[in-house]
Design a protein that fits this description.
Rossmann fold; two-stranded antiparallel sheet; 38% helix; 4-stranded parallel sheet; alpha/beta
């Protein structure tokens, strides 16, 4: 896998994309590949209100993290826009982050991290369109006990396809003072 974006690759080190246009995020890791049964279960969690799956899926993430930990002081889920969260009723990244945080003994910090505008769903967009869609879409505002200055943040999401969302989140978190930002997802789209 690429040492930066975590994309499956046949060459050691960085994938071709990261060699020519590296991401600003410190790295991205995923527990599983987004295919077959994994894809079906994630869709059930995300679109069919199957919250009971959260603990099982977070356990898979925790097992992967324990086997290959990345530096982190806290977890923060990718925020949904308030309109999308009202529509869905929950944020699957938040559910995963809270369950995972309990399992690996890291606090979840979500207050202050928000999506500043309603973006189009990423699912049918090209890589370039995905980057543009989420560019500047996140902000982290420190309030009281949610300061992340000097801390290492691990951004949690369900699926990583191009890394655009995690990259946009990392830029917002680093602008708020995070010393390091990694992305960690349940699954990663294949090459």
């Amino acid at each position: 896998m690429c040492q930066l974006c975590g994309r499956p690759t046949d060459v050691p080190g960085l994938c071709q994309s990261c060699r020519y246009a590296p991401l600003s995020i410190d790295g991205i890791r995923s527990a599983l590949l987004f295919q077959g049964g994994v894809r079906q279960v994630i869709h059930q969690l995300k679109y069919s209100d199957r919250h009971a799956l959260t603990v099982i899926l977070a356990r898979l993430m925790a097992d992967h993290w324990h086997a290959s930990p990345v530096p982190a002081d806290l977890l923060t889920p990718v925020p949904l826009h308030p309109a999308r969260q009202r529509e869905r009723g929950y944020n699957q990244a938040d559910l995963l982050a809270r369950a995972l945080g309990d399992m690996i003994s890291l606090p979840v910090v979500g207050t202050g991290f928000r999506r500043t505008r309603h973006t189009r769903p990423q699912v049918d967009l090209s890589a370039a369109d995905r980057r543009e869609n989420v560019r500047g879409a996140f902000i982290y505002q420190t309030r009281g006990d949610n300061a992340i200055s000097g801390k290492r943040a691990l951004v949690i999401d369900d699926v990583c396809t191009t890394g655009s969302t995690l990259e946009a989140c990392s830029l917002a978190l680093k602008a708020a003072g995070a010393s390091m930002v990694w992305g960690f997802t349940l699954a990663r789209a294949g090459p």
